[in-house]
Amino acid sequence: MRLEDLLARTCVIGLSYFDLQGEPMKQAQYAGSVVRVDPEQGIWVRLRHMDAGVDQPEFVLPPNLDAWFKAPPGHYRHAASGVDIENPDYVVTWDIHRTQNNTAEGQHEWWDWVPNVVPPQVGPPRP
Asked: What is the DSSP letter of 105?
């Protein structure tokens, strides 16, 4: 697969954030369509919102295809945002690790993005 193959494809994005000690901080989930790709700057995803009248922001992912997996068919719902996407093309998951602590307010925080290279499990665990 090439970056260009992602254009106009839909995806569900799962992000897990970790502190300096490797402890989970938070998780986030998004869904959208790829609108632009650049091998150095990243993959732009126009995020879906449950209200089509709301501006649809773009989220930039690293230009690494290791975290992209074909999504099993089905409905992907995110209760917190109300976003519901049916049969997306891809599921994308990243672990994002904080690399600095105690940054002053307004200062840039550094994060290390690590692609999950094992296909994510979707739905309840299988016996």
From this structure: T
As a whole number of angstroms, the distance between CA 74 and CA 57 comes to: 24
Query: Could you tell me the maximum CA-CA distance found in the chain, to the nearest angstrom?
Result: 48
Burial status of residue 91 (CB atoms within 10 A of its CB: 0-12, 13-18, 19 or more): buried
Q: pLDDT tens digit string along 68-103?
A: 999 999 888 877 777 788 999 999 999 999 887 766
Residue 43 · residue 33 · CB < 8 Å: no
Confidence of residue 38 (pLDDT cuts 50, 70, 90): very high
41-54, pLDDT tens digit by residue? 999 999 987 666 77
Using DSSP bridges, classify how beta strands 90-98 and 10-18 pair: parallel, antiparallel or unpaired: parallel
Report how far residue 113's alpha carbon sits from residue 50's, in angstroms, rounded to the nearest whole number.
Answer: 27
Read out DSSP for 6-62? GTT-EEEEEEEEE-TTS-EEEEEEEEEEEEEEETTTEEEEEE--SSTTS---EEEE-
